[in-house]
Amino acid sequence: MAVLVDRNTRVIVQGITGKSGILQTKSLIDYGTVVVAGVTPGKAGTAVEGVPVFNSVADAMKETDPNAAISFVPPMFAKDAAMEAMEAGIKLLVLTMEGIPKHDVLDILSYASGRGVCVLGPGTAGVISPGKCKLGAHPARMFREGRVGVVSKSGALSYEVGKTLTDAGIGQSTVVALGGGPIWGTTQRDVVELFNADPETEIIVLLGEIGGSTEIAAAEYIAESVRKPVVSLIVGRSAPEGKSLGHAGAIIRGNKGTAASKMEALEKAGALLATTPAQVVELIRKLG
Amino acid sequence: MKLYEFQGKSLFREAGIPVPKGAVVTASDRSGLFAPSAVKAQVLSGGRGKAGGVLLASTMDEAKKAADSILSMELKGEPVKAVLVEEKMNIRAEYYLAVTFDGEAGTPLFMASASGGMDIESVAEHTPEKILKLPVDPLWGLTDYKIREMADFLGYENKKEFASFARKLWNLFREKEAVLVEINPLVVTDSGLVALDSKIEIDDDAKPRLKDLFEQNLSEQARITGKEADADHGTITYVPLDGNVGLISDGAGTGMLTLDLIKDFGGSAADFCEMGGLTSPEVMYSAMDQVFSDKKDIRSLLVVLIGGFNRMDEMAEGITSYLRDHSVSIPLVVRLCGTMEEEGKTIMKEAGLPVYDDLRTAVADAVRFAAGGE
Fold it and tell me: Do B183 and B271 fall into the same domain?
């Protein structure tokens, strides 16, 4: 089990012959991810790290039967590649690139929702089910197999918390990063729902940050439907008001989007609040 | 790229959206002045009307005085360098109409209200039911039934005229790759709907395929303000703060976490500097350059790196090459782990620089060093 990716995940890498594509493909294979094909138009017949390269996703589908794609296609061509993958039947799409034009992202997400495709990103570090499959940039040593599901907007924060948990001997079922925004495919609420239904996930860790209201939507879902313990860490509580700190989502607008308002909503929903990764560990240990 | 009102209106005109007749007037060129007219400050920030940036003039004399007065203003720190002089409108009603996107729902969004004008923010806060929010599927486009819903909500009688207006607005939003097209107020006059104001922001990520649009509008802005557009800092986000611990991170999430930890340990950050998604040795180098050139009084520099897509060997190269080119006398605390960390640590070690693995230890040391500790 685990969510989104597991041992049955068969991956194609879009943009496999670029610099990131090559480096990350090696890292995926080293981890044990089943990478069945790469796609770069015009490069059919070549191979990257032993993975056969095809001209189109459709060609790769015929010969290698993939069910997930990770894209390293440059921003201006990312929409075309995403549409191609979805039309060919891919149901999980990890968009790593930042800087994809926003109207392209909106088109991708519209097409995805019509076809029931799960899109992570854009600008996501991806997803890892430790010990089973890595479909992202995660440093392997920071994760180990276990029963804690982690969802985060920020990729780096998901590594940081993964590392802290792993160093403390606490394993994870799946760790999902959603990207820094300002437009998201999959949201925290969606992933909490997946974790809630996943028998391998016993504890849910929700990582959030100041700005926007996706954590509030997740809190509402938790209050209604989640009986598993939820531990939450919202970063940026010391940020000065009204300043944008990188993620476009992290702009405080009035009271909505402050760390305090999110923590309050999550606490009301029954989540346990941590203020640091070390505290996440303490709270999980207390849960036994 | 944010556009001035008059730039937005020239896009409106091009798209066939009715706007008042007007002329741009600057301190050096007042030939366009006329009366009776409305004289409006051209600034990129909002809240202009409330700050006195719009004056009505009945005579040429009043128009001159209004222009003089507004051209000497500063609105939210932005000196006014141009005014738009427009014909006065016979206003029967003021609407609010905008197209933007809802990032959390991942969809374009029309917003319409019959309570347009200066107080739309307070309408949004106190009576949100007076604003219709209508998601629009980008691949289907703006459908007739959504247009009818908006016209009914606004109570506008001429459905055919409204439909044409709304479609033009939608097409402009899509073709010019706007993240915001806002008309506040959209006024009802005897001759129909007129966009009395415009607020347009174009997606910077679309710049490579909208070169002419960017070039034309940015050079026009540079001519007016007399200074070049801000240099492109790539994906680096830099926000100066008040403390003495310099901070650079390779992710916004970990950057914010570190900000919190610095405070927990009793320190205060001098800045928030986050390198974003496309890192390289050059980006690391310029992040350090940015912090050191802006912050002369920092007492320690904390660099927090946890590599996924970004490579620790490249980060270490950026740090060491900066230190070769500059003399840095304050303590440097580098937490480095993740992709290619062994290679990165080797580069740091050869340069005689210590590397941390644990974030808390790194933050604790950076705060202690900043306070003068050993």
Answer: no
ipTM higher than threshold 0.95: no
Residue type at A205? V
B216 in any annotated domain: yes
pLDDT tens, residue by residue, B324-372: 999 999 999 999 999 999 999 999 999 999 999 999 999 999 999 999 8
Question: B208 with B250, same domain?
Answer: no
**Residue A238 dihedral angles phi and psi, to the nearest 5°:** -100, 5
- Say whether pLDDT at A250 is over 70: no
- Shared domain for B266 and B288, answered yes or no, is yes
State whether B365 and B241 are in the same domain: yes
Same domain, B155 and B217: yes
Residue at which a domain ends, from B181, B199, B225: B225
Q: How close B99 comes to chain A (CA, Å)?
A: 12
Summarize pLDDT for B61-85 with one digit per residue, the tens: 999 999 999 999 999 888 999 999 9
Task: Compute the distance between CA of residue B367 and CA of residue B374 in angstroms, rounded to an integer.
Answer: 11
Compute the nearest-CA separation of B208 from chain A (Å).
8
Instruction: Show the domains of chain A with their CATH numbers.
Output: 10-120 (3.40.50.720), 139-287 (3.40.50.261)
Q: Is residue B280 domain-resident?
A: yes
Is residue B321 in some structural domain? Answer: yes
Catalytic residue (one of A112, A247, A274, A283): A247
Task: Identify whether residues B154 and B70 lie together within a single domain.
Answer: no
Round the average pLDDT of chain A to a whole number and report it: 93
Would you state the pLDDT for residue A249? Answer: 45
- The answer on B78 and B147 residing in a single domain is no
pLDDT band for A251, please (50, 70, 90 cuts).
very low
Same domain for B220 and B109?
A: yes
pLDDT classification of B127: cutoffs 50, 70, 90: confident
Structure tokens at B108: 């374009």
Tell me: pLDDT of B117 over 90. no
Of A142, A154, A212, the CB nearest to B251: A154
Mutation target vs B (from A235, A244, A280; most B CBs, 10 A cutoff): A235
Residues in chain B within 8 Å Cβ distance of A214: 104
B46 in a domain, yes or no?
Answer: yes
Residues of B in contact with A156 (CB under 8 A): 249-254, 306, 308
Domain of B286, in residue numbers:
237-370
* Domain end point (choices B202, B225, B248): B225
Chain A segment 102-121 residues within 8 A of B by beta carbon are 102-103, 105-107, 109-111, 113-114
Query: Which pLDDT band, with edges at 50, 70 and 90, does B122 fall under?
Result: confident
How close is the nearest chain B Cα to the Cα of A44, in Å? 26
Give the CATH number of the domain where residue B73 resides: 3.30.1490.20
* A247 counts as catalytic: yes
| CB of A279 less than 8 A from some CB of B | no
What is the mean pLDDT of the segment spanning B12-26? 97
